[in-house]
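User: structure tokens for NADP-dependent oxidoreductase, please.
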Amino acid sequence: MNTQAIRYHQYGPPDVMALEAIAQFPLEPGQVRVSLRAAGVAPLDAKLRAGLLQAQLALTLPKVPGRDGAGVIVESRAEGLPVGEPVCVMADMFGQGSYADSIVVPAARVVRQPSTLSTRQAAALLQPGASAWIPIVKTAQVRSGMKVLVHAGSGAVGSLMIQLALHLGAEVWATCSSANRDDVLALGAAGVIAYDKEDFSALRGFDVVFDLVGGNTHDRSYPVLKPGGQLVWLVASAIRERGEEFKVRVVRAMIDDAPECLRAVAKLAEERVWVPTVGQCFPLAEAARAHALLESGKAARGRIVLDIP
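Assistant: Done. Predicted tokens:
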């Protein structure tokens, strides 16, 4: 039997991707086969497809993109993961991705779908959730009483960061566009700076800044921090490290997909601590349109999701 999947055979613009029939992988011990119902579309997917990260991440082509997916187990050789179980999956970056109607993954890359989430929300959970949980919990160790600033607070990762930091008792501020200001305030942020109308660099007294943007945004974040504060950054535009100048700690949050992390992300969703934000939705066959929208910078807040028939 074959699987229908989006693939690209060479790096390039969105239209290098096409829906194709690919051979199904056999199931090995400790693995499950998941019939996917939805897949999240991440900025990393587009950067990989465009060939922008070839020096850092050498993919084997042709490539089925996508990390996040949600669906139902249809075949299992893994203990505790029965057929019929709704699950979220985190695909291996270097293997088959989630832009497909089925996928084979090891048990360590599967968590039960939180009952609190729709299928689309579940497909927008694990990758953004890991990118929020690791910086907040492991890197910065946010706790009650801290004052934190989250850049790009309306995005898939930033919105989860806001919700988690609030849960941990921090005072949370965020930056976003003026169009998304009310939505970010509705998440519970104490203050929101609309970067297209206001200058966040006038803020002072923060314990942590989470930088999901880089470049000029990173550079202007240093004065915002207290001496001894932390500037935590994720992969983005190039940065200029100025920690010694401002007497702050600058650290890159290294995102992984360890089972401990995936379980923690799902547990927080089950406990209603956070809810992923879903933006526009496209059919699987229109993945190229989804990537074009993502790269245009005109996508609505939250994660784009592909619906899989």
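User: Anything notable?

Assistant: The mean pLDDT is 95.
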